[in-house]
Amino acid sequence: MKTIHMNLSRPSYKSLREVADIMLAGGVAIYPTDTVYGLGCDIFSKKAMERISRIKKRDPAKPFSIMCVNIEQISEFAQVSNWGFRLMNRTLPGAYTYILEARKSAAPKKMLGKRSTVGVRIPDNQICNKLVELVERPIITTSVNLSGGEPFSDPAMLPESFERYIDVAINVGPLVSEPSTVVDLTGDEPVVIRHGKGEELL
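The structure assignment produced for this chain is given below.
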């Protein structure tokens, strides 16, 4: 695993371009978000998604969330209602994961697993947002942890079993791990299904 140390407030464009290129080549990367460190890959790399499931000892049928650059990109892969658009427009970028009905014609089957919905994020973090912009399509994103366990707050503390399967990690130092608030937007009104960071703005 290659480690790139970066300043959270002054990220290096050259280094981010390198990470984006690794993802586009089928690589798996670690990056900071506004909640926890994320583990991700190109949305269209089935092999990279399978590798992430192995790293985390995660059920391969479990769906992945995606990280997008804006709501317009979200709407390419998920169905966004008028009221859902207004809520997301008010709260994003932010520490929220919104559950939406997926557009199956656009969303890769491996990403959805056995579900028809997809979790979408636009974090309030310029590093991961720039990565999505450079990749030019959504990034699969999940927390850096063993399935069901606590997220790792510092890439320097990753066990060897993780490092072997990860191509590159952006290290900005330890983060205070706090999960995103998860909100289901598939019904007639928003339903909070996990309480976390940012809930006070809903």
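Interim note for the steering committee: The domain at 2-195 is CATH 3.90.870.10 (DHBP synthase). The helical segments are 13-24, 46-56, 71-77, 82-91, 109-112, 126-135, 160-163.
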